[in-house]
Design a protein that fits this description.
Number of helices: 4
Number of domains: 1
Shape: globular
CATH topology: Pnp Oxidase, Chain A
Structural class: alpha+beta
Strand order of the largest sheet: 2-1-5-6-7-4-3
Helix content: 25-40%
Oligomer: single chain
CATH superfamily: Electron Transport, Fmn-binding Protein, Chain A
Strand content: 35-45%
Largest sheet: 7 strands, antiparallel
Radius of gyration: 15 Å
Length: about 140
């Protein structure tokens, strides 16, 4: 995307606080090219049990996430801090739907970007979640 270099610059600058609350940089090595890439992604932290995961979503039609079909090492920059971890892509629609449910429970305001309506009880609409899971994949990063 044409604006990614601008976002990368901003997140690496002292002005990162303007965006770093929900946008991080993920740096990885291309599985075929061997080149290093840095991609800005929106993220949300989901905790289950003792696991704390940084969750990013991508449209299935994009290609960057395919580098994580097998777990791969990554460097991330979150809120101005450089950290390392492992990222993996989750493609299974049932798993994606379950993660998206938690995602929209925690951040219902993002529902509009995914076309997911939030019901009166605060739960995301099940049919909208099903459709979103068909269109999206999850990139899950565990730090450490």
């Amino acid at each position: 995307m044409w604006f990614n270099p601008i976002i990368v610059w901003l997140l690496r600058s002292p002005l990162h606080g303007l965006m770093s609350k929900n946008t991080m940089l993920i740096t990885y090595t291309g599985r075929r090219s061997g080149r290093r890439y840095t991609t800005p992604v929106n993220y949300l932290v989901l905790s289950t049990g003792d696991e704390r995961a940084y969750i990013a979503t991508s449209q299935r039609t994009r290609t960057w996430w395919r580098n994580f079909r097998q777990q791969a090492p990554v460097q991330v920059q979150i809120k101005g801090k450089d950290l390392t971890g492992k990222a993996s892509a989750i493609e299974d629609e049932a798993q994606v739907a379950e993660i998206l449910r938690g995602y929209f429970r925690q951040a219902p305001q993002f529902g509009r970007y995914f076309g997911v309506r939030i019901q009166q009880d605060g739960e995301p609409d099940p049919e909208d979640i099903r459709r979103a899971a068909q269109e999206r994949v999850i990139v899950k990063t565990i730090l450490g």
